[in-house]
Amino acid sequence: MNSIYQNIITSISRPKKLLAVLIDPDKMNVENVSGFLDKVNASIATHIFVGGSEVDKGVTETLVVEIKKYSNLPIVLFPGDIIQITDKADGILFLSLISGRNPEYLIGKHVEAVSKINETTLEVLPTGYMLIENGKQTSVERVSQTKPIKRQALQTIIDTAKAGELLGMQLIYLEAGSGATHPIEPKIISNVKQQLNIPLIVGGGIRSLSELTSAYKAGADLVVIGTAFEDDETFLNEIKK
Predict the structure, then answer these.
(1) What is the count of structural domains for the chain?
(2) N or C: where does the chain have the smaller number of CB atoms within 10 Å of the terminal CB?
(3) Which domain holds residue 151?
């Protein structure tokens, strides 16, 4: 498989917008994978992200193996912990939670993960991960013991994203959180995008085609949708190829 990151860069230059379907191993039953992937493969989805904040050991690998049977889309791990790392996937978002100040999620967990990643052929994608306040506590906030950046703190959001790029991140990920009450506002997306020279990922709270389109128009290069598909798989029918 070609480099996941290089394919993202190439798509942006065309330009072509990208969509990742996020599958949470804790919420997807293996017996339902085939039917769900039929809809994913018929949609405009370009990537499959796999991961969650709290997942039991071994569950992620079992799910990735099953997904591989039914889709040729690149599978990228979106891990909440090192136990979710598996060489059965194609790549991994190496997430540094730069919106928070908990050293474990800025660098600590990464040090623990290195020996395990070195045993795989995963493409590692250094990603500046930013949790943006959405009106409710998310699992990421609870597990990481960090506070999201307030939506009103636009300059802080912009500066944090740019700092991530200057630190060498290949991607910046603006996240409202799983089950967010509302997506990240277009104003935030557009202002962050204007300052970046690297791809921008946006996720959380997007539940309709109009919200997806709005995120793209604002500057998101890759949008991640998870909960909306978990709650209503017919959403996939709205974004068929």
Answers:
(1) 1
(2) C
(3) 4-232
pTM (whole model) above 0.85:
yes
How confident is the chain (241 residues) per 10-residue block, as mean pLDDT?
90 96 94 95 97 91 98 97 97 98 97 97 98 90 94 98 98 91 95 98 94 98 90 88 89
Q: Does residue 121 fall inside a structural domain?
A: yes
DSSP the chain: ---HHHHHHHHHHTT--EEEEEE-TTT--GGGHHHHHHHHHTBS--EEEE--SS--TTHHHHHHHHHHHH--S-EEE--SSGGG--TTSSEEEEEEETTS--HIIIIIHHHHHHHHHTTS-PEEEEEEEEEB--SS--HHHHHHT-PPBPTT-HHHHHHHHHHHHHTT-SEEEEE--TT-SSPPPHHHHHHHHHH-SS-EEEESS--SHHHHHHHHHHT-SEEEE-HHHHH-TTHHHHTB-
Q: Each residue of 206-219: pLDDT tens digit?
A: 999 999 999 999 99
Q: What's CA 174's distance to the chain center, in Å?
A: 9
